[in-house]
Design brief:
heterodimer; A: 355 residues; alpha+beta; OB fold (Dihydrolipoamide Acetyltransferase, E2P); 2 domains; 6-stranded mixed β-sheet; 5-stranded antiparallel β-sheet; 9 helices; 20 strands; B: 292 residues; mainly alpha; MetI-like fold; 74% helix; binds adenosine-5'-triphosphate; binds magnesium ion
Chain lengths: 355, 292
Amino acid sequence: MTHVYLDKLTKVYPGANEAAVSDFSLDIPDGELVAFLGPSGCGKTTTLKMIAGLIRPTRGRITFDGEDVIAIPAEKRGAVMVFQNYLLFPYMSVGDNVGFGLKMRGVDKRTIRQKVQEMLELVKLPDISDRRPNQLSGGQQQRVALARALITEPRVLLLDEPLSNLDAHLRDEMRELIVSIQRQLKVTTVFVTHDQEEAVLLADKIALMFEGVLQQFASPDEFYQRPISERAARFFGGVNFIDANRNGNKVETSVGNFVFNAKNSDNAPEGDSVLTIRPEQIAIGHDVPNGENVVTGRVRSRIYVGTYTRYKIAIDDCEIEAIRSADLPGEINEGDEINVHFPSDRIWFVPRNSN
Amino acid sequence: MTFWERWRIPIMLAPTMAIVIILFGGALYYGFLQSLGWQPRIGNTELSLDAYNNILFAGPQTEQFWRGLVLTLWVSFASTFLSAVLAIGSALLLRQTFVGKRVATFLFQFNLPIPHVVAAIGILFLFSQSGLISRGLAQIGVIGAPNQFPIVVRDSLGIGIILSFVWKEAPFLGVIVLAVLQSLGEDYEDLARSLGANRWQRFRYVILPLILPGLLSGSVIVFAFTFGSFEVPAILGVRFPRMLSVTTDRFFRDPDLNSRTEGMAISMIIAVIVLVLVFVYQWLSRRAIRQE
Ligand SMILES: Nc1ncnc2c1ncn2[C@@H]1O[C@H](COP(=O)(O)OP(=O)(O)OP(=O)(O)O)[C@@H](O)[C@H]1O
Ligand SMILES: [Mg+2]
C-alpha cells in the first residue's frame, strides 16, 4: 500500500521532437485502482515505465509515500509491471515463473513453493504449477503473469493493457478477477487501457491523456457528467455538442434558451462555450410536458438496439442524439414532432474550439 | 485432399533429398567399405577391421591418433566455447545504442566472408615469433628479441589454431545471438527487472536461457566444423600432435594406396565422434536449460 505521487513527469525520447509525456502530475491515493486511459501512442506505457523505473524521466519527480524514488533502480523500487503479452519465461514451469521474483531475492525454496501455491490459488489456478507456459490458454497465462507480479508484494502494481489480448468474455472474467484481487490486497494499482468502457468498469479514478498530456483525472461518472473538453466527452461516447453562451445559470443556444444548475457548476466554462449532454439523459416523447429547457424537434431516424432505441432528432439546424429505454410507454416514429427535454442539472459545458 | 495436396511437399523436397541421400549416404557407404579394405582397383576385395585396429590399438600411427584426438577435442571445445563467450559479450554490447554503432557492427561482421585460410595466414603474420606483434614488442623494448615472444602459433597446444577459429567463428555466433536478442526486444529484461532481478540475474536467468537454443544450434555447427576442418591446422599446426583432419590427409596422400584404408577409417571415426558429441552436447544443454 503506497501513495504514489507524480510531479510534472516529462519524457522526451532521444531524437524525438516532441515529448512523449509532458508535465504529467497525478496523485494516486494509497490502495486505489487508477486507470490510465487514452488512444494509442498517447504515452501510457511511457508513463508506466517511468513509475516502474524502467525509463528515466527527462524531468519531474516520482514519490512513493513521500519518498523520492527517481534514484532507486527498477529492481529495488518495488513497482512491478505486467505486460500485455504476458511474457512468461518459456523455459520455466509455471511454478518457477510465479516464484521468479522471490528467487531473485534469495528466498529459500520451501517458502517460495508455499507462496507460489498461495498465489496460484489467488488467481484461481491452483493445479498448474508444473505445467509449461505454452500449455496454457491466453487467459491462464495472463493470470500466471499476475500471480508472478503479486508474489513480491509490490508497492505498486502496474498493468499495461493486460486484457487486450483476450477475447471478450475472458476479458470480463479477468477484469473482475483483477478488481477483486485488488480490493482484497489493496495494492495501489495503475491499469493502462485504451478502452473507455474497461476503465469505467474497473477504476476508482481515471486519468485521461491525449498526446502525452493529462486531460482530466476524475471518477468515472465525472467523465460522463462533467467532461473537461469536447474531446474528452467524445472519448466517453458523447455525441451532442451545441454552441452556447452561458452567463451564470442562463444559457443561450441556437436551439433555445436553457437554465443550467448542475452540481459543481463552478468548473463549467462561461461565455462562449459548447453545451453537451449525454444521449441517455435527454428526455424525449409526446408525453414530455412543455416547460423549462424543453424544445420541439423532429425525429429523423430511429435504430432499435435491443434494450433501448437510439433516435436522431433535428432541432432547427441542429441534430442531436437521444437514447430511450425500449420499454417506456408511448411510441415514437420517424417524422414525429416531439418534445425534447434537456434537464437543467444534466447539461454541461465545455470550452469552445477545444479539441 | 487431392493427390497433389497430399504429396506436394515431399515431391518438392525430393530433388534436394535425393542429392543429400546420394551424395552423403553414398559417400558414407563407399567410405565405410574402403575403411574395411575394399579397394578393387588394387585387388583388395576382402573386408576386415585391420585398419581400425592399426589406428586405435596397434599400429605405427596409434599414438599420433590418440594424441591427435585429444588435441582435436581440445581445439574444438576451446574454439567453440571461446567463440560463444565472445559472441554473447559482443552481441550484448552491439545491441545497445552508442556512438559509432554502425561502424562497430560492420567491423564485427567484416570477416564473416573471409576464407579460413586467410584467417590462418593472418594469425601467422601477427602472432608468430617473426610476426608483427613480436617484432613490434621487441622494437619498443617490451621483450628483448622477437624470439622471446611466447610460441602461440605452430605450438603443441594449438593456440594459434584456436585463435584463428575464434576470430572466424565468434562473429558467426555473434550474428546469431544478436538476431535473437533483437527479435526478443527488451521486454523480458524489463519485466525481470521490475520483479527484482539485478544485472547479473537478468543475464543468468533471462538472457542466457532465451538465447541458448539459437546459440546451441550455432555452437554445434562451429564444433563440428572445427573438429573436421583441415586448412587452419594444416597451416598453423605442428607435426606432433597433429589434428585428426591433417593426419587423415597424410594417409590419403601416401603413395602406398593401402594407407587409404587407414585414412578412411579415421574419417569414419571422426564422423562417429562428431555425431556422438553433438548429440551429447545437445542433450546436456537441453537438460541444463530445463533445470532452471
Ligand atoms: N523507445 C522509444 N523511443 C522513441 N520513441 C518512443 C519510444 N517508445 C515510445 N515512443 C513514442 O512515444 C510515444 C508514446 O508511446 P507509448 O508507448 O508510451 O504510448 P502508449 O500510450 O502506450 O500507446 P499504445 O496504446 O499503442 O501502447 C509514441 O509517440 C511513441 O512513438
Ligand atoms: Mg502501450
